[in-house]
Amino acid sequence: MQGITLCSIKTSAYPVCRYFNRTVVSLVKPAQSLGAVSESCIWKTNSFLKLFRKRLCISAVAHQDADNLTEKEKRLLSNLYTGLISGQRACLAEAITLVESTHIRKREMAQVLLQRVLSHHREQETLNSGEPLAFRVGLSGPPGAGKSTFIEFFGKTLTDEGHKVAVLAVDPSSSTSGGSLLGDKTRMTELSRDMNAYIRPSPTRGTLGGVTRTTNEAIVLCEGSGYNIILVETVGVGQSEFAVADMVDMFVLLLPPAGGDELQGIKRGIVEMADLVAITKADGDLLIPARKIQTEYVSALKLLRKRSRTWNPQVMRISAKTGEGIQDLWKKMLEFQNSMLTSGELITKRRSQQRVWMWNLIQENVLLHFRNHPAVKHQIPILEERVRTGTLSPGLAADMLLNAFSKSS
Ligand SMILES: Nc1nc2c(ncn2[C@@H]2O[C@H](COP(=O)(O)OP(=O)(O)OP(=O)(O)O)[C@@H](O)[C@H]2O)c(=O)[nH]1
Ligand SMILES: [Mg+2]
Prior knowledge:
Blueprint: H1 2-13, H2 17-33, H3 39-66, H4 71-85, H5 89-100, H6 104-127, E1 135-141, H7 147-160, E2 165-170, H8 174-177, H9 180-187, H10 189-193, E3 197-201, H11 213-224, E4 229-235, H12 240-245, E5 250-255, H13 268-273, E6 276-279, H14 287-303, E7 314-317, H15 326-343, H16 345-372, H17 374-377, H18 379-388, H19 394-408
Parallel strand pairs: 1-4, 1-5, 2-3, 2-4, 5-6, 6-7
Helix pairs in contact: 2-3, 3-6, 4-5, 4-6, 5-6, 5-11, 6-11
The structure holds guanosine-5'-triphosphate and magnesium ion.
Guanosine-5'-triphosphate (GTP) is lined by residues 141, 143-149, 180, 184, 187, 235, 280-281, 283-284, 286, 319-321.
């Protein structure tokens, strides 16, 4: 009975932690003095209170940051936060727009919001026995591999099973073609109408080949809004997939059944990162080439360095046209998730990803600060030109710029 009471208080008390702290103390302390509460219940209560105090500290940090904000901004953030965690799509969209903003004030607000969403996220994870609430999957492949068509089919399969799916489409090609994302939206017509799916193109600016710093933050916001499967689509032509691999639990490479030449653009390093390779369009006339490519990749993967203690990358065939192989692919993905969770590799991976991401942000910001610093800004093109024409060594040019920068900062 006491266990049940404690458990139900636990669940309902999270949103009102301050009240809970007081309530539990006032309920348990007198009962304890009367000898009506067992040792184990007291122990559970104490550890739970410790957790709450920790939670209050996290809130305090967020509140400290929020102190710089005006009342109006605080109200706006509060509404956005409440709407976001209760699953309102409009609030999620607005929150992602806020984190994508380059406006300094808005970035400050975005950080306060993110901090709150992260605290909420941590609480939810604690309730989930410390296990991640969402499965993050990166999907990459060369242009035209069939990524969007696959996501449309796969996404529908997942929402039919009751999942909430968020698709973050990172598309570096859209800045040049100007309409690729529009194309994606029309290719994902069914999924974009589904109330349990949310599709969001990422802006193309940023230093990581289309993946912006905000993709990672958008993942956090989607999870805070209750999406439990996050698909991040990238075109495998640049650095973007390396950056995406550092944000997701599983990295899936989609390859069309094309000859060697067409796959030249796919860098070996990308194949090395794949936890699963899916040969797309395995239907009709393309079935035979798909089988051939599958065999080639099975042999190729055997030669690659093993990245996980428990998982061997697999090669599968799928068709988004006939649906063939897509359920099997999902089963394999769950198998991967399970094995990574059981071995503890998933948690370790997520922790190291956080660290990598922090350094990515530092690098990006330090470089931006350096390039725009008045002491070096005008020197850069002149020295670059001298290095290019061979009148100055790269090392000397770098030293000159760094010296000018450090003297003036
Ligand atoms: N036969 C067959 N064709 C497919 C399949 N999936 C996609 N296609 C076709 O392949 C072409 C490219 O598909 P997309 O889904 O747009 O490919 P993508 O990888 O998203 O392309 P980008 O976003 O431009 O990089 C389209 O003409 C699709 O109709 C499939 O399973 N079978
Ligand atoms: Mg696409």
